Amino acid sequence: MSMQNPFINAMAQLDKVAKINNLDKEFVSKLRQPDREIIVSIPVRMDDGSLRIFEGYRVEYNNTLGPYKGGIRYHPNTEINEVKALSFWMTLKCAVIGIPMGGGKGGITVDPKLLSSTELESLSRGWVRKFSDILGPYKDVPAPDVNTTAEIMAWMADEYGKITSDKTGAVITGKPVGKGGSLGRDTATAQGGFYAFEALKKDLKLGEKCKIVVQGFGNAGANAALIWGKAGHTIIAVSDSKGGVFDPKGLDILKLLAFKEKTGSVSGFSGSKDITNEELLELDCDLLIPAALENTITPDNVDNIKAKVILELANGPITSSADEVLFKKGIPVVPDILANSGGVAVSYFEWVQNLKGEHWTEKEVFDKLRPMMELSASEILNKSKKLKTDLRMGAFILALDRIKAKM
Ligand code: GLU
Q1: What fold is seen in the domain 33-168?
Q2: Does pTM top 0.70 for this prediction?
Q3: 60 forms bridges with which residues in the sheet?
Q4: How far apart are CA 392 and CA 324, in angstroms?
Q5: Within 6 Å (CB) of ligand 1, which residues are found?
């Protein structure tokens, strides 16, 4: 599979929108660079007494609309170009969903599954110590991303509080409920994606009961399988990093979650057929939901995609050249910066609650999220129809108009 530098892909998307929408050259050149990118080394005393040095990142891309906002990724393949791309997409994502936040992203090159809880805690606190000067409720507000949990956010918020005496906890979102986290934050990414799907369903010519394939079984993917399943759709296949399972009659997602909890993977789930991640992506279905990492649908496999519609819960799963092919084939893509923006929207709600000392019910959270998702979805649809382009370009245009207006 071709591994493309995600930042090159992000910039190809920017070049494309610049052409379609005839964007001002100076504005585009400003958007080709982050405000700053920082690489640090984080020493950690391991349980066996040895010292290991990890590489950590924070990229502050753009704060035209508000404090830099975006998650922290722990992954063995995470590196600065990935973090840069993700922070660029965060900038657009916050603009698309209409929250007063800019874009940032962080990460550490690490496989957290290989660390003990003590090692993970000292690594996470170490990341905050390195970046405490640039973080802050009104400066830069991190959150969870791939492989980072509410517990990790709690350690980070605590470390920041110790260094700065900040008591609001608003420096970081995605904290556990009870430690300043918002109700609904854990399911918000998938739930927001579902609201966008509902809003666009008719235009995408999808029926009431869809056959759904979900790639990735982390926070976004597993909750998506639960939410779409609960709404009466049939989840015919899911996968995690180790492989996938397929059952044309529909998988029991609650049982599958319990199975994965026990065995560490979805593979081998009884009553289903084991398939590879590659096979899963090429299944015949109504809706394919990539919910894992970047570069999932590329020129290598795009011709084999049989889904009627794709909804990106992951960030950047489709390369720019694969996008072109999908558009020509008439396979609409609900783009990441809309589809997964429910996560950062509820992060923003958490930030507001922390700063005001409020606690909203889950119903209040989702009653606020739903109309935001619906409004952005319809604005994007209108833009893309008007310019006869795809939904991603519609979303880019909406976001860039908002950033430009503020600049
Ligand atoms: N990591 C998530 C994303 O990619 C959430 C970011 C946030 O809540 O700040 O959108």
Answers
A1: Rossmann fold (3.40.50)
A2: yes
A3: 36, 104
A4: 11
A5: 69-71, 93, 143, 145, 173-174, 315, 340, 343-344, 347
